[in-house]
Amino acid sequence: MVKNDTYAFQVEQITYKYNNQIALKDISLTVRAGERIAILGANGSGKSTLLKILDALYFPQSGKVCAFGEALTEAALQDEARAFALRRRVGLVFQDPDVQLFSPTVWDEVTFAPLHLGLPKTEVIERAEWAMDLLNITKLRDRAPHRLSGGEKKKVALASVLSLRPDVWLLDEPTASLDPRSQSRLLDFIGELSKEGKTIITATHDLDIVEEIADRVVMFCEEHEITSDGAPRELLADYDRLIECNLIHEHRHKHDGAEHAHHHLHPVAHEHQH
Amino acid sequence: MPSSPFYWSIKLRHKSARGFFEKTLNDITGALEQTLFAEEIARRDGLLQSLDPRAKLVGALALLIAISASRNLIVILALYALTLPVAYASRVPMGFYLKRVWVFMPLFTGVVALPALFSPFSPGAPVVTLIDLASPRVYLAITEPGVITAAFLLLRVGASVSMAVLLVLTTRWTTLLKALRVLRVPQAFVLILGMTYRYIYVLLHAVNNMFLARQSRVVGRVASADHRRWLAASMGALFAKSYALSDDVYLAMQSRGFRGEAQVMETLTWRAVDWVWLAVFVAVAAMAIILGH
After folding, report:
1. What is each CA distance from B269 to A143, B44, B59, in whole angstroms?
2. How confident is the model at residue B2 (pLDDT cuts 50, 70, 90)?
3. Chain B residue at shortest CA distance from A120
4. For A46, A179, B37, B235, which has the most beta carbons within 10 A of its beta carbon?
5. B259 vs A125: CB contact, 8 Å cut-off?
């Protein structure tokens, strides 16, 4: 494996099982620094597990993972300096904000990462205030997470990672259960991160957002393997593959009494000619 | 927000409560409502709300010690009476405040204090003689020492609970937890308490939704055996859910640098007025101890 910073991640033939149940099977993937990647797959295909492995929260039973040229193993992460170096560079936004927001107030949440990663207190405050200002949540500072709306929770979850200023963002189903306005703001936010040259890896099954958030798509099939890796336009046009991976479905409906069927893929508006 | 489960659960409260099922649902909703109301009081612009929680916590502790140490009923009564103008100045609804202490307290403390009233437990001059038979000798009376003992117990508990209620009602739970640090409570303990409070809401909402989902599919009367079976199953489901949640939360903490040692940013600010009020609380407590000795 190449020992430099050109690659954010190098994943070689990893397999991960939860209690003998396979979650990832023989996965290989290389992510260059600054890339925008969408990991597409149906529920349970292994997307979230892969993100947790990239964030060194899970360790695969076989295969090898490197982040910035350094091997990610349980033993390596025992070393505090190495663990902190990784955690400062990689931020994971969990799908469920209730999992991500475990602190009593928004302020505690946003300061949690810089504080626990050993930054000086003045910098912790500066970063937290900056992140809250950027996401326009300064007014929520003293609120408890249970008093926030779904959109607000998502913003706080993003701020809690933003205060880390990571080079790599791992986003797990970021648009799940967001209203249209919050969703559009989130996409703008991801766009801003991308302009700054951050590496962004988004796990999703929301095909509507893929072209906006990614230049490359890695598609998982229901057998927990990678089936395709390529440009979004090309892969989103491969209907057979999308159906096989359970990302689109055959849609039947009636127009003027005549039954009509087509693949259901929302980003491409379909013309009806009857 | 008619679509939120919270709204519908409030609506359900107005229906007549039928059996255990609805009662549980109402209790869960009531718990949620009450905590939201208590937090609203803590945000009001009142006397105690304006003080640093550390001043209130140490002050309340000093007064609690005074209540326990005082051997004079008048002094304890005076300490309790002092909480009333303070509660008023802190914009705590008086009816709510009095009810919260005096409605439930006699049920629990009253039961404990009850036997102390009677002659077998507190011998002495009778206030009211209930039974006095010569043969066989049976004597039961409410005695003077008994009344004094029961009054001490009730007043002490009432005054102490009032102080605690006032502290909790006027201080947001999160800042109260931070204030515990002045008492040298370990950081890990404060973190666990904070997380417990945080996730009680998530789990309460989960329970509420489970009950509502069940209720929406039930028509007519259901046998209580079925209720029990369902309840056992939901308890299991909730346990599994909370277990999975705790795993994920730990991962989320690790992801942001947690390595077993909790740290919290100090956000409390101590002002001159906090010194003044702390001095007042401690002086009152000291006076009560001296006068009540």
Report:
1. 18, 18, 17
2. very low
3. B265
4. A46
5. no
Distances, alpha carbon B152 to alpha carbons A84, B69, B71, B109, B292, in Å: 58, 11, 8, 11, 12
Write down the residue that tokens 């346990």 correspond to.
B239
For B217, list phi and psi in degrees, rounded to 5: -110, 10
φ, ψ dihedrals at A40, nearest 5°: -100, 140
Residue from A6, A35, A1, A37 nearest A226 by CA = A37
* Cβ–Cβ contact A220 with B under 8 A: no
Q: Do the chains contact at B198 and A104, CB–CB below 8 Å?
A: yes
Phi, psi at A80, each rounded to 5°: -60, -45
- CA dist., res. B209 & res. B204, Å (int): 9
For residue B266, the 8-state DSSP code is -
Nearest Cα of chain A lies from the Cα of B55 at a distance, in angstroms, of: 20
The DSSP-derived string for A204-269 is E--GGGHHHH-SEEEEE-TTSSEEEEE-HHHHHT-HHHHHHTTSSEEEEEEETTEEEEEEE-TTSP
Averaged pLDDT of chain A: 87
B177 vs A104: CB contact, 8 Å cut-off?
Answer: yes
Domain A7-249 sits in CATH at 3.40.50.300
Q: Would you tell me how many other CB atoms lie within 10 Å of the CB of residue B63? A: 24
Q: How confident is the model at residue A232 (pLDDT cuts 50, 70, 90)?
A: confident
| Cα A197 from Cα B113, distance rounded (Å) | 71
d(CA B31, CA B209): 14
Which residues on adjacent β-strands are paired with residue A70?
Answer: A67
pLDDT tens profile B199-208: 888 888 888 8
For B30-63, the pLDDT digits (tens) are: 777 777 777 788 888 899 999 999 999 999 999 9
Inspect the interface and report whether the beta carbons of B252 and A55 lie closer than 8 Å: no
